[in-house]
Design goal:
Number of strands: 9
Radius of gyration: 20 Å
Structural class: alpha/beta
Distance between the termini: 60 Å
Mean pLDDT: 96
Low-confidence stretches: none
Shape: elongated
């Protein structure tokens, strides 16, 4: 398949390289000039998109997605698939999809879960909104770049699924860190707490798969001085998107709002930027210490 790939950063680069390694003809473009193994360098976003059956974008935010869409939609072949893998606001995803459909294209919003490791290893999960025909065309590509793709319904629903998932993740990571910090002050050994909670009703992905306490549970960023697997500022971005969506549809999300406020404080006013989102544990554990 002839594929255009726009946005060859930490996530997009490995994704594009995996598609090229699988034998697809991939032309990539990134305004920062980054490249990916096996991917032909395009001169511009338009150059990467021309003649491609599928154009994939992996971009930082909705404003940039809208700008790139304005550039590439006019040069894409009718019937081609515009596959956006960015995590952006639902309104931008739906507006860009409508713009693409008006131009005779198929549009999919397909944000991912799995981080940089998942992008490199081809083990991402895709949450996909858009039409069935576009999903069927893109399915072989999802199978190369990831281990699972879930069709969540019409355009925008992929973004909705991603922000709902990550709102849960942000809130559960905070309360997991709170529990460890409380256990410390109560004199309860962290390993003992993990052994109980990981097999009891407090079970969660944050505890069992990504434990924020160093030396406890499976290997996680906590065991690597909280170097990011998923950076705190990215969690803040996703929690902010969730709150924007909640306000737009008048949804009551008090815990999601509280989680966003705490990550904002951690990233913007403290030392959270550039650290893993599970570094909330040392931040909470330090309370009351001099």
């Amino acid at each position: 398949m002839k594929i255009g790939f726009i946005g060859l950063g930490n996530m997009g680069g490995p994704m594009a390289a995996n598609l090229a390694a699988a034998g697809h003809d991939v032309t990539g473009f990134d305004p920062a000039g980054t490249s990916a193994d096996g991917v032909r360098a395009g001169a511009s976003a338009e150059d990467a998109a021309k003649g491609a059956g599928v154009v994939i974008t992996m971009l930082p935010n909705g404003t940039i997605l809208r700008s790139v869409a304005d550039q590439i939609i006019p040069v894409m072949d009718k019937g081609a698939v515009f596959l956006d893998c960015s995590t952006v606001d639902v309104a931008s995803a739906r507006d860009v999809a409508a713009q693409a459909q008006t131009a005779g294209l198929s549009a999919l919003d397909a944000p991912v879960s799995g981080g940089i490791g998942g992008a490199s290893g081809g083990t991402l999960t895709f949450m996909v909104g858009g039409d069935e025909a576009g999903f069927a065309t893109a399915k072989p590509l999802f199978d190369i770049m990831g281990q699972k793709a879930v069709h969540c319904g019409p355009s925008g629903n992929g973004q909705a699924a991603k922000i709902c998932n990550n709102m849960i993740l942000g809130a559960t990571m905070i309360v997991t860190c709170e529990a460890f910090a409380l256990a410390d002050k109560l004199g309860l050994d962290r390993q003992a707490m993990f052994d109980v909670v990981s097999t009891s009703s407090g079970y969660s992905w944050s505890m069992n798969a990504y434990c924020p306490a160093p030396g406890v549970g499976p290997k996680s960023p906590a065991d690597n001085d909280y170097k990011p697997g998923f950076a705190a500022e990215l969690m803040l971005k996703d929690l902010t998107l969730a709150q924007q969506a909640a306000e737009a549809v008048d949804a009551d999300t008090p815990l999601g709002s509280a989680a966003r406020a705490l990550y904002a404080q951690f990233v913007e006013d403290e030392d959270g930027k550039g650290r893993d989102f599970s570094a909330m544990l040392p931040r909470l554990a330090a309370r009351g210490h001099t």
